[in-house]
Amino acid sequence: MANDLTLVIVTPESSVLEETCDSVSLPATLGYVTILPRHTPMVSTLAVGIVAYQQGTQSGALALSGGFFEVSDDTVTVLADTAELPTDIDIETARQALQEAKASMGQLSGPELSQARRTVELSEARIAVAG
User: Fold this and answer.
1) What is the pLDDT at residue 2?
2) What is the DSSP code (8-state) at residue 37?
3) 100: buried, middle or exposed (CB in 10 Å: 19+, 13-18, 0-12)?
4) What was the pLDDT predicted at 90?
5) How far apart are CA 56 and CA 46, in angstroms?
6) In the prediction, which pLDDT does 1 show?
7) What distance in Å separates the CA atoms of residue 46 and residue 130, rounded to the nearest whole number?
8) Residue 131 has what pLDDT?
């Protein structure tokens, strides 16, 4: 159909999702981007965050840990480092990781602090998607 997008999400390990949808919101490095049918072709990097998609009144979301996406010919292809569906997320593990990362941030610097921030962002995304 001319007014639909195809969303394809893959990781190095597997094909995670292929859905027809009306819109897709992605966590691009410089902020969230919403893609609609007939969007201009583009390629961009992904930040840690949530991919949300909508088809009519139905919606879905996945937690991502970064990667790249491409928009071309009404297809949004996401090449993610990791991508988790709500059913794949252990919310208690995500909450524990969030708590531990936040607790450690005051004692870290440099690359370790950057990694703790990334863990906080991913844990928050995982909790939001699963919750």
Assistant:
1) 58
2) T
3) middle
4) 95
5) 25
6) 47
7) 20
8) 85
Within a 10 A sphere around the Cβ of 103, how many other Cβ atoms? 10
pTM value is: 0.91
Closest C-alpha to 61, from 80, 34, 79, 86? 86
CA-to-CA dists, residue 24 to 13, 60, 114, angstroms? 23, 10, 28
- Spell out where the chain has E strands: 5-10, 15-21, 23-28, 31-35, 42-55, 58-72, 75-80, 83-84
Distance CA 131, CA 39 (A): 31
Say whether 124 sits in a helix, a strand or coil. helix
As a whole number of angstroms, the distance between CA 32 and CA 10 comes to 19
CA angle, 108 then 88 then 131, to 5°: 75
pLDDT < 50 positions in the chain: 1
